[in-house]
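Good morning C.,

I know you're traveling, so I'll keep this short. The sequence:
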Amino acid sequence: MDIKGKIAVVTGAAHRVGKSIALELAGAGAHVVVHYHQSETAAHATVEEIKQKGAQAVAVGGDLSAPESIDHLFQSAEAEFGGVDILVNSAAIMERGDVLTLTPEDWQRTMAINLTAPFFCAQRAARSMLARGGGAIINVADLSALEPWAKYPVHSVSKAGLVMLTQVLAKALAPRIRVNAVAPGPVEAAGLGRGPLARGRRAHSSQTHRFRL
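The tokens, ready to paste straight into the viewer:
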């Protein structure tokens, strides 16, 4: 997929992996909607870095656990750029927990951001993509989707769910929209500038889980 001139929405793009992905997309010629939750200053800094690469960008804030924030995100993308061609679901929370003491609030907080929000972002993006002839959705999972992390139980379950969601969406939206996932291992922050997953000490790649537009 030639992404020059395409419109990408990247959730959680103010810093870390999301920022690196946004910058990589901009470097390849895409215009980027930089979503953030609380990191407004960092998001605007990311926008400026994208513009230095010759691409257009806009920062849009919102709590993705709220449906109205997802609507606002995509309404902003459509108002600014006319639609969406690429969605990267990168926003996530990762909280430690004990299976014996986890509360319903703990469970719901992580699931809302790590699994529910990616579905409704994908739903909203897909409507725009289909109107434009197609597109690509990339979900950022991690190794906890494949190897259970006992100290991060809800996170592990949410990421495993994200992998299954990816497979469901891939079948439901094919062939006009491609849906893939990546499952990186720990990522060193110092290496993010070299690529979205450049310095991950471990990474999983297969026919199902890969970063491809």
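Safe travels,
E.
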